[in-house]
Amino acid sequence: LSARGEPSMDPTTAADSPAQQDSLFSMTDVFLISLITGLFTYWFFFRKKKEEVPELPKMQTVAAPVRDSSFIEKMKKTGRNIVVFYGSQTGTAEEFANRLAKDAHRYGLRGMAADPEEYDLSDLSRLSEIDKSLAVFCMATYGEGDPTDNAQDFYDWLQEADADLSGLRFAVFGLGNKTYEHFNAMGKYVDKRLEELGAQRIFELGLGDDDGNLEEDFITWREQFWPAVCEHFGVEATGEESSIRQYELVVHTDVNMNKVYTGEMGRLKSYENQKPPFDAKNPFLAQVMENRKLNEGGERHLMHLELDISNSKIRYESGDHVAVYPANDSSLVNQIGEILGTDLDTVMSLNNLDEESNKKHPFPCPTSYRTALTYYLDITNPPRTNVLYELAQYASDSGEQERLRKMASSAAEGKALYLSWVVEARRNILAILQDMPSLRPPIDHLCELLPRLQARYYSIASSSKVHPNSIHICAVTVEYETKTGRLNKGVATSWLRSKVPAQPGSSSQVPGQQESSSLVPMYVRKSQFRLPFKPSTPVIMIGPGTGIAPFMGFIQERAWLKQQGKEVGETVLYYGCRHEREDYLYREELARFQKEGVLTQLNVAFSRDQAEKVYVQHLLKKNKENVWKLVNEGMAHIYVCGDARNMARDVQNTFYEIVSEFGNMSQPQAVDYVKKLMTKGRYSLDVWS
């Protein structure tokens, strides 16, 4: 109505013919018409609102049914008595949970794996309503002692809960890494907190170490866990571990290709029709705008990539991580297809035989075997023992079958064989198929068994204040020769290296171009690695190699703050590389920041340019007086990024020494001082192993 009324009120139209207007309308007519129009408009909108109000509740009840989030009701309905919750960031804890749930049938029990994010965990107090019930928790620790994304709500509930869990029986297996400061913090916390709330622990806490052999840690715990369950409930194993398929194969011969997944992580056609917000289940297809080699020599390939996030509504802060979904090497995929004599373009679905399960398929279906092996399945990591056990039945040679079963057993000899032949030799599924000529499993069962291909995380190497429409990545290509003489390549870094920068002005998303040579499916994961709130606070950044990535963002941001007229504190960088002339990353940029006075100190350790190796911790010791002054008097924030196993530990030990010497403290007091800096957010780590 208002649109129809606009032209008659247009000032240019009103000025066209005054004589004509006088003859048609008097002022009274105009007034009356305006009054009637106004009353009609008011009545029209008022009437609409009156009609809509009673309609709303009815619409809501139809459109948004309340989701049943009770795992208790689901267990009762499906006859389950064991629930295995998983806190998983990379899929391993989920995999372990599925294995434990599957084990239960051997003892006359029925298990289900469950994502804590999908259920109301306050129902744990009701689990005793189910006979012979047990809750198991496979909890991974992420970052600096944090819960995984899907276990955050559960963690928050545990902290605030005053529930009485006296009827609950539980066990916990934690997944961690000893190179990190807060080893298995989440597993330890869940185990301790459930006991505090009155729950009964029926088996001791398991602590898996990914820096050692996580698979062996799990198997060792699991082989002692089940006898404890049997003893507690008075049940016995019903027989040998058997191979039970979880999914059934459906081959689609006549299918509408518009209904087939081609690599999307969640919604079908989400790569053709992109809709924010973008996250792990709905990644953004970013174009690579720049992909250049950073190092001038040496065997390694260090690279700088820039991803275009224009029009994505993606926001990021310096210190955040960018997650990218890579694709497996097509030659590996083709070789698996050839060995198994399969048409990889067959369109199929794997449907869960348990109709009540929330997980209908192991990966998006329907899809082709080629898509599954390229985008959805991990084909490059050594397979875990449960995969070998399930595959053994397909080896026609009795010797090969026995070897596979032995490696999957809990016997010491079997564990040693698995460690040497699979883990240390870095044999992936293709290498195992090549080295066991009689092993020819059906490809659908192989696809069911292989774990999901996970997103890879990189510290963002840019500041959104300076680069609001792009995200920068600094990475090194992983490539090594195995003990069997094979060349293994890192999935994500090899894939990123092959990305061809898009030409300026080229269109962003073209249907069917998910595998395009310039597109990267990505999303941003927030981190706690943050610059101080006050720009005047000094910062000490320690990041050798690609550990420099977040500090490029930090320095860019401090330069921007300085340009805005803000008082910026001392900005100190300790960087390290092998050779000055080979792999000194961002050399020109750092020199420019130093010349502009943004980077107040640039300390670089070239580890292999002299007889004795020099690392960042040696430079910290050399400048120890200045370091202590910045920390003690300047209240500086310390940031460490890079290798957790050696560098981060050595740097931390160096800080203990500096604090002990200049703060006149004993070793335990110095350790406590640094720990307090961490608690206050003044000593932050962004490390990997």
From TrEMBL:
Domain FAD-binding FR-type, residue spans: 281-532
PROSITE patterns associated with the record: FAD_FR (PS51384), FLAVODOXIN_LIKE (PS50902)
EC number, as in UniProt: 1.6.2.4
Domain Flavodoxin-like: 82-226
Cofactor(s) needed by this chain: FMN; FAD
GO biological process: response to hormone
UniProt key word Endoplasmic reticulum: yes
Entry's transmembrane regions: 24-45
InterPro entries: CysJ-like_FAD-binding, FAD-bd_FR_type, Flavdoxin-like, Flavodoxin/NO_synth, Flavoprot_Pyr_Nucl_cyt_Rdtase, Flavoprotein-like_sf, FNR_nucleotide-bd, NADPH_Cyt_P450_Rdtase_alpha
CDD domains assigned: CYPOR
Gene3D superfamilies per record: 3.40.50.360, NADPH-cytochrome p450 Reductase, Chain A, domain 3, Nucleotide-binding domain of ferredoxin-NADP reductase (FNR) module, Translation factors
PANTHER family reported for this sequence: NADPH--CYTOCHROME P450 REDUCTASE (PTHR19384:SF17), NITRIC OXIDE SYNTHASE-RELATED (PTHR19384)
Protein name: NADPH--hemoprotein reductase
Species this protein is from: Nesospiza acunhae
Lineage summary: Eukaryota, Metazoa, Chordata, Craniata, Vertebrata
Encoding gene per record: Por
